[in-house]
């Protein structure tokens, strides 16, 4: 079946399970009586299940490579992501024995992502602000605005381009 496609090999190049937190950070919030406080938010992003990730390299003929990365998704108290698939297609053009040009297209098909808000003592919902510093303008956005930013990251095209290699 695959020989008709010119498939020369399938190779598992990587794989494993990930158990550590998705994010490690501190966040600032409004405590009782309007007092600003800082807390560790790492536990919000501790995985409830291990994440499985597999990467395959598939050669189509001698000059086309397809790299596929499959991720089982993330399940934490404040962020959930369904399984995702990344694909990279590379076409290698040999110019000479010491030069080659590689054309590539990189795609990512993310599963549904869900952010679960933190709530301060006044009942205000906010994103738990992983990976940002207190002076970042990100803090000024509401939870809904930040959630929209995450949902708009779903563009499947990660990159299209070329690479020129010279061997000395």
C-alpha Rg, in Å? 22 Å
Q: Looking across the biggest beta sheet, what order are the strands in?
A: 1-4-5-8-9-13
- Describe the main β-sheet briefly: 6 strands, antiparallel
Mean pLDDT: 77
How far apart the termini lie comes to 40 Å
Number of domains: 1
User: What portion of residues belong to β-strands?
Assistant: over 45%
**How many extended strands?**
13
Q: Identify the quaternary structure here.
A: single chain
Overall spatial form: elongated
Helix content bin: under 10%
- Low-confidence parts lasting 5 or more residues at pLDDT below 50? 1-9
- Topology order in helix (H) and strand (E) letters: EEEEEEEEEEEEHE
- Coarse structural class: mainly beta
Enumerate how many helices there are, as a single number. 1
What this model shows, in words?
There is one protein chain. Strands 1-4-5-8-9-13 form a six-stranded antiparallel β-sheet, with no helix packed on it. The chain has a three-stranded antiparallel β-sheet with strand order 6-7-10. The protein has a two-stranded antiparallel ribbon with strand order 2-3. The protein has one helix and 13 strands; from the N terminus they run E-E-E-E-E-E-E-E-E-E-E-E-H-E. It has one domain. It is mainly beta and 168 residues long.
TL;DR?
The protein has 168 residues and is mainly β. Helix content is 5%, strand content 51%.
Ordered list of secondary-structure elements with their pairings:
Layout (H helix, E strand, L loop, with lengths): L6 E12 L7 E5 L5 E5 L10 E10 L3 E8 L2 E2 L3 E3 L2 E13 L2 E11 L3 E3 L2 E2 L5 E2 L16 H9 L5 E10 L2
Antiparallel strand pairs: 1-4, 2-3, 4-5, 5-8, 6-7, 7-10, 8-9, 9-13, 11-12
């Amino acid at each position: 079946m695959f020989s008709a496609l010119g498939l020369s090999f399938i190779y598992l190049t990587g794989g494993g399970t990930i158990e550590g937190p998705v994010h490690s950070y501190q966040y600032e919030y409004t405590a009782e009586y309007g007092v600003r406080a800082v807390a560790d938010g790492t536990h919000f992003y501790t995985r409830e299940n291990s994440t499985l990730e597999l990467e395959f390299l598939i050669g189509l003929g001698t000059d086309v490579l397809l790299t596929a990365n499959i991720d089982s998704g993330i399940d934490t108290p404040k962020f959930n992501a369904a399984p995702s698939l990344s694909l990279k297609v590379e076409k290698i053009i040999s110019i000479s024995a010491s030069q080659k040009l590689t054309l590539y297209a990189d795609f990512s098909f993310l599963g549904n992502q869900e952010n679960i808000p933190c709530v301060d003592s006044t009942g205000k919902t906010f994103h738990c602000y992983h990976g940002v510093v207190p002076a970042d303008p990100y803090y000024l956005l509401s939870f809904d605005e930040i959630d929209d930013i995450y949902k708009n990251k779903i563009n499947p095209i990660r990159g299209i381009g070329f690479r020129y290699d010279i061997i000395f």
